[in-house]
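User: tokens in, sequence out, please.
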């Protein structure tokens, strides 16, 4: 049985109809709440913020997304990669302006929300394409490794801080007499071992004792909560034995209401965080949309990219004004929400309600939670995101794409998030310009006995000495205008017998003004040599643009509907 498969449910309208989905939504919310408790605390720790900030990020932002988003199963909240990005963005700004990192995080949340809402208003969801697959995979792998490595000091009880390898190394070098805290090492090591064992063996063990596959998978994903409860029990039962182990501290929802609102931050803080907000918003949107679309496809549902922008925008604005860190759609909790049978996005509202009740009643209990256990939770979670297969597959497919992926991953580890993403986007654009500047083309000939034309280097085809047929496999734009005239001009110069050139253009989707002038220049150069230029298999919109550019007046040859028609007309 495929545990991710689900039957598409009819749309629910009104309270009377929603009552059908209410039991399933409430059950899914209860299960997700169990997962959210350790996640919220761990990701706040990762962002360098108080634990309550992570809790607040899992409350009202979920409700805001439920009201405006489009996915029935996407669970919004703090996630590992975004938490690391938040740490790298707010720490230097907070230090430079003498404010708390929490206040800077609120400003960042509001700015990210504004970015999402403006993008939705301007229908800019297509900008997600700026993060190409090599950049995204390289960044996620590099960020995941950076996050995992950054947890090692917490697991050893060492006061080493940093988000990149050079920062961690510099912090360690500045404190040469550091010694591990062995109680922390024991607690963190036990948590790592238990988390890894439960992740690997819990689900198969539950299946072996007769639990249904779906239930076994859901309970297996609750492993972090088991470890949290066990570690708290160990601390509370023998506090002297664990003396010196850093704890999360008291967590109260009342503390979450006592924060400086973002509008109290100086204007310079808003200015300094604008660029990080743009980059983090792009990453958050791409990650969230990918999760939403993957889960929607399994239910036969449709996702609206624009409504996702609206939902994430509202969630982050609400996060900023309610004392929370930036949020986006998380993969792990969304999968759990999906598997638990959530029918509508309103399951998120029940999740927020259950989490609020849990934190109001269990906040004192969670004060004994060791930070090393949270670090172990992050370590195990992010290592599951590391997939080296992407690198080998990209390298085999295209060396430049593979090199780009490796470059972005290393830049994330050694330089940080903003330089890595900026470098990745720039290199992606450079690769795109390189491909369009040197587009693929092929001389074609006729397959004997057919009206099919193929590359002369790949197939045994018929050609005519006075006829040169060239297929262009790229749109003609300003980057390749010079290539067009130079390549075909050289080809014709090498073949004095050629009297007709046919440009076969089924793959040409667009010709800009530079491309039009390039065609005109090619036409004049060929005419001066006594050669006639023809065009074939033009797409309708491309033909319309060329006709508006006076094609009928300057083209020396004809426009053919098919390449076979050109062959038959010019073969004599």
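Assistant: Sequence out:
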């Amino acid at each position: 049985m495929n545990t991710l498969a689900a039957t598409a449910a009819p749309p629910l309208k009104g309270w009377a109809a929603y009552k059908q989905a209410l039991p399933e939504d409430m059950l899914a919310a209860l299960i997700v709440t169990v997962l959210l408790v350790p996640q919220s605390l761990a990701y706040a720790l990762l962002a360098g913020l108080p634990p309550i900030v992570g809790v607040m990020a899992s409350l009202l932002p979920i409700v805001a997304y439920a009201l405006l988003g489009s996915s029935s199963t996407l669970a919004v909240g703090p996630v590992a990669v975004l938490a690391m990005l938040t740490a790298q963005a707010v720490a230097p700004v907070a230090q430079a302006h003498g404010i708390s990192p929490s206040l800077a995080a609120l400003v960042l949340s509001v700015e990210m929300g504004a970015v999402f809402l403006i993008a939705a208003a301007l229908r800019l969801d297509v900008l997600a394409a700026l993060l190409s697959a090599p950049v995204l995979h390289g960044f996620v792998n590099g960020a995941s490794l950076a996050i995992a490595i950054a947890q090692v000091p917490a697991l050893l009880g060492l006061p080493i801080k940093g988000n990149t390898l050079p920062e961690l190394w510099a912090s360690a070098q500045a404190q040469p007499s550091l010694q591990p805290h062995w109680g922390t090492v024991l607690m963190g090591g036990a948590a790592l071992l238990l988390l890894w064992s439960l992740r690997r063996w819990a689900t198969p063990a539950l299946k072996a004792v007769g639990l249904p596959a779906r239930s076994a998978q859901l309970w297996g994903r609750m492993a972090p909560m088991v470890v949290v409860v066990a570690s708290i029990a160990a601390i509370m039962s023998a506090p002297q034995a664990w003396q010196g182990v850093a704890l999360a501290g008291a967590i109260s929802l009342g503390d979450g209401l006592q924060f400086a609102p973002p509008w109290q931050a100086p204007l310079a803080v808003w200015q300094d965080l604008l660029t990080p907000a743009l980059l983090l918003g792009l990453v958050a949107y791409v990650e969230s949309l990918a999760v939403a679309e993957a889960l929607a496809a399994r239910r036969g549902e449709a996702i609206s990219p624009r409504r996702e922008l609206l939902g994430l925008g509202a969630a982050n604005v609400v996060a900023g004004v309610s004392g929370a860190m930036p949020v986006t759609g998380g993969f792990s909790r969304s999968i759990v929400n999906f598997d638990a049978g959530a029918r509508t996005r309103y399951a998120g509202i029940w999740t927020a309600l259950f989490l609020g009740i849990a934190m109001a009643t269990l906040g004192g209990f969670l004060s004994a939670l060791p930070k090393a256990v949270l670090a172990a939770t992050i370590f195990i979670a992010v290592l599951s995101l590391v997939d080296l297969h992407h690198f080998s597959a990209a390298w085999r497919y295209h060396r430049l794409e593979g090199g780009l992926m490796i470059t972005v991953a290393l830049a994330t580890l050694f330089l940080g998030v903003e330089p890595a993403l900026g470098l990745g986007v720039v290199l992606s654009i450079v690769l795109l310009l390189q491909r369009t500047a040197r587009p693929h083309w092929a001389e074609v000939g006729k397959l004997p006995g057919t009206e099919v034309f193929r590359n002369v280097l790949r197939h045994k085809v018929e050609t005519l000495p006075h006829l040169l047929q060239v297929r262009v496999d790229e749109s003609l734009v300003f980057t390749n205008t010079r290539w067009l005239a130079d390549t075909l001009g050289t080809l014709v110069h090498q073949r004095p017998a050629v009297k007709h050139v046919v440009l076969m253009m089924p793959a040409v989707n667009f010709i800009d003004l530079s491309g039009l002038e390039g065609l005109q220049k090619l036409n004049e150069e060929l005419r001066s040599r006594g050669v006639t230029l023809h065009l074939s298999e033009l797409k309708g919109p491309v033909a319309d643009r060329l006709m508006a550019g006076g094609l009928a007046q300057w083209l020396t040859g004809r426009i053919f509907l098919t390449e076979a028609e050109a062959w038959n007309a010019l073969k004599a």
